[in-house]
């Protein structure tokens, strides 16, 4: 199951309390204060993990509480810090405070960490309160509570190329042929109900990531079909491949529908490097002529089933990624 949104409760650990203690040594009948400080409470930390693809684990367990700091002790011994809790999340996870909506962080790199609930400060022991005029203090401080909040985790997949098309346009078949991904494939609409990622091996040990985004329909930006639930994943792709079934009776209109849906959702999507991929060449006759889309985008006619022009498609994908690199560098 692909889970791309969860709301969880995170609590930093209580700080340990300071100690009230006095030195008790032979021949020192009136030793001074030696109560140590309490340890800070543990924190709740999110960490990016490139091997994860879903937030599913957090849909079952909602509360995460870090360890309490140890209390201070005599002989000026400070308490140990409470144990941190590290929650691993997929790359592309946006973290928000559920109450205020404030974005706390955006995890995009493997190993990147964000502290979402800090542990409470440890209390001071009585040794901290000693002064020249107050030599035997009995004051001490309790530990402070840690941060307590609800947070929202929203996953937006990170990929180099996003495959966009109507249901049953051949996206899953293509992904299965150019990568090791094995999405569900069948000859009916909406076979793909969740995004799939595939790593494509290119020449000279180069790899890039392609995302199979579930089929869009007209009105997707308004939530129709699978709509906004999956449109948001296209935001993270660096380039876009519009897949259109060569048997479509109105391929130009289909492209316009896809283009308009992306534009209506976010104008930035149509500024990404893109190409048009006409699919299912194996089902067409030799005299079939690809339509003129009239938009200046490169067009490639392929058969994922038969393997026609798949190497050329990889070349085109790599060119799009290089274009995206130039745009990023200019930005």
UniProtKB/TrEMBL annotation:
The UniProt entry's GO CC annotations, sorted and at most eight, read: cytoplasm
Occurrences of domain Obg (ranges)? 1-158
**Which terms does the UniProt entry file under GO BP?**
ribosome biogenesis
Instruction: List, as start-end ranges, the regions of compositional bias called Basic and acidic residues.
Output: 136-145
Q: For this UniProt entry, which segments traverse the membrane?
A: none
| Family recorded in the similarity comment | Belongs to the TRAFAC class OBG-HflX-like GTPase superfamily. OBG GTPase family.
Provide the assembly information: Monomer.
The protein depicted here goes by the name: GTPase Obg
* Source organism: Caldithrix abyssi DSM 13497
Q: State the gene name recorded for this protein.
A: obg
């Amino acid at each position: 199951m692909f889970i791309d949104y969860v709301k969880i409760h995170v609590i930093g650990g209580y700080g340990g309390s300071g100690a009230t203690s006095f030195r008790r040594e032979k021949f020192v009948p009136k030793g001074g204060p030696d109560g140590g400080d309490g340890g800070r409470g543990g924190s709740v930390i999110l960490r990016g993990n490139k091997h994860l693809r879903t937030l599913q684990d957090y849909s079952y367990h909602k509360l995460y509480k870090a360890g309490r700091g140890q209390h201070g002790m005599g002989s000026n011994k400070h308490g140990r810090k409470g144990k941190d809790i590290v929650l691993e999340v997929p790359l592309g996870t946006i973290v928000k405070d559920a109450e205020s909506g404030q974005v706390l962080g955006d995890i995009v790199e493997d190993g990147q960490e964000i502290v979402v609930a800090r542990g409470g400060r440890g209390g001071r022991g009585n040794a901290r309160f000693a002064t020249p005029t107050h030599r035997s203090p009995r004051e001490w401080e309790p530990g402070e509570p840690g941060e307590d909040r609800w947070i929202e985790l929203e996953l937006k997949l990170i990929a180099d190329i996003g495959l966009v098309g109507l249901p049953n346009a051949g996206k899953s078949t293509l992904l299965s042929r150019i990568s090791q991904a094995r999405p569900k494939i069948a000859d009916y609409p909406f076979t793909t109900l969740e995004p799939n990622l595939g790593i494509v091996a290119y020449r000279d040990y180069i790899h890039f990531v392609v995302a199979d985004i579930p089929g869009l329909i007209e009105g997707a930006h308004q939530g129709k079909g699978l709509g906004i639930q999956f449109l948001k994943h296209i935001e993270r792709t660096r380039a876009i491949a519009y897949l259109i079934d060569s048997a479509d009776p109105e391929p130009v209109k289909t492209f316009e529908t896809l283009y308009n849906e992306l534009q209506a959702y976010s104008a930035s999507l149509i500024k990404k490097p893109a190409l048009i991929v006409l699919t299912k060449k194996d089902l067409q006759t030799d005299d079939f002529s690809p339509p003129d889309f009239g938009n200046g985008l490169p067009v490639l006619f392929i058969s994922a089933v038969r393997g026609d022009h798949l190497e050329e498609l990889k070349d085109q994908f790599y060119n799009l990624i290089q274009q995206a690199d130039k745009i990023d560098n200019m930005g």
